[in-house]
Amino acid sequence: MNLPEKSSINARLAIIEDNEDLRDELIFYLSAKGYNVWGADSAEAFWRQLHRSPVDIVLVDIGLPGEDGFSVIEYLNSIGHFGVIVLSARGTTQDKIRGLDLGADAYLIKPVNFSELADTITRLYRRICSEKDARQAAAEPGASHWRLTAEALYCSDGMALDLTPKEYGLLTVLYKHKNTVCKKEQVHDALFGFHEQADMHRVDVILSRLRRKAREKSMTLPVRAVFGQGLVFTDADQEAEAQI
Predict the structure, then answer these.
(1) How far apart, in whole angstroms, are the C-alpha atoms of residue 88 and residue 93?
(2) Which residues are CB-neighbours of 161 under 8 A, at least 6 positions away?
(3) What pTM did the predictor assign?
(4) Nearest-5° angle of CA 87, CA 93, CA 96?
(5) Is 223 in a helix, a strand, or coil?
(6) Which residue, 27, 106, 153, 184, shows the most beta carbons closer than 10 Å to its own?
């Protein structure tokens, strides 16, 4: 058996898969690619190991014993900046949409093409690194009316809007280009990676949740839609006009 070519990235991976043979095959292949990878046969075993072995990307099956994969995806999305790739035999449109809406970055159907999986990991990890750089840049102090961190969006009057990782990712893209219209496709690709037929509804869902949370706190979200063009983060303390 020819070993796969080593990857140029150093992503840390975890695999949650109750099929021992498939889990072992994935660990062997991805280890041979040069990744730091470990596996768990259940969500419960994964949570215990995660405290000792931090990861960047989690590969998760949906049909797990005990806590299912959907619950894992949702919780991972709420606690940190993890990349999530679903590997599942459940290939219905409903399951795929549910997984992606809960926070998965990619949804691959079994039997999984290992080469396709490796390409998906590479693209996702590069995006994760890019978002990390953007978060650091966005957190630097400046003359902005708003301050964005991984945990919340802060207004100069002291109000704060708590953020999930996906909400933070959306705002990071717009915040980086304050007062300039960003196409929805640009936001989508930053959040979910490039797709030939991008689903803009996923961006709308995140933005709708943000607006609802802002309304509940009597806070005006500094994001507006420009019909036919995209979205813009408007900064009250910036002199520049939105380029629309």
Answers:
(1) 12
(2) 152, 153, 154, 210, 213, 214, 217, 219, 221
(3) 0.61
(4) 35
(5) strand
(6) 153
Q: Which residues contact 144 (CB under 8 A, 6 or more apart)?
A: 178, 235, 237, 238
d(CA 171, CA 206): 10
**Domains in the chain, ordered, with CATH?**
12-129 (3.40.50.2300), 139-233 (1.10.10.10)
Query: Under the phi-then-psi rule, with left for phi > 0, alpha for psi from -120 to 50, and beta for the rest, what region is 144?
Result: beta
Distances (CA, A) of 80 to 68, 76, 83, 84: 19, 6, 9, 11
Q: Residue 115 class from Cβ within 10 Å (0-12 exposed, 13-18 middle, 19+ buried)?
A: exposed
Q: Where are the alpha helices (DSSP H) in 103-200?
A: 114-138, 165-176, 184-192
Q: What is the pLDDT of residues 155-179, one digit of tens each?
A: 877 788 989 888 999 999 998 888 8
Q: Name 147's bridge partners.
A: 154
What's the CA gap between 35 and 4, in Å, rounded? 12
Q: What integer best gives the mean pLDDT of the chain? A: 85
